[in-house]
Amino acid sequence: MLNYAILFLFYIAIFHCFLFTISCPPPNPNLYYQPVIGILSHPGDGTSGRHSNATGASFIHASYVKFVEAAGARVVPLIYNEPEEKILKVSEKASN
């Protein structure tokens, strides 16, 4: 009986050594496994229901974002009144 206990502990020790010496390579941060989708914002504050450009504020409907995220993508907001260069720079990084 003592021999089986020693053999069992030996197998456990070997298993732990094997388990901790094998590791997966770290993920590459340059790879994105989810598509990145840009959503253009609307002028207005989003609370009054009016699309007004008077305040300079913008909003994106939450349903747009949730729909895209439910499909497995990440969302990048594209603010409508940003300079065109900035919008193009951000949209180049997006998948679509």
UniProtKB/TrEMBL annotation:
Keyword Transmembrane set for record: yes
Keywords for the protein's UniProt record, in alphabetical order: Hydrolase, Membrane, Transmembrane, Transmembrane helix
InterPro entries: Class_I_gatase-like (IPR029062), Pept_C26_g-glut_hydrolase (IPR015527)
Transmembrane segments: 6-24
EC number: 3.4.19.9
Gene Ontology MF, one: gamma-glutamyl-peptidase activity
UniProt protein name: Putative gamma-glutamyl hydrolase
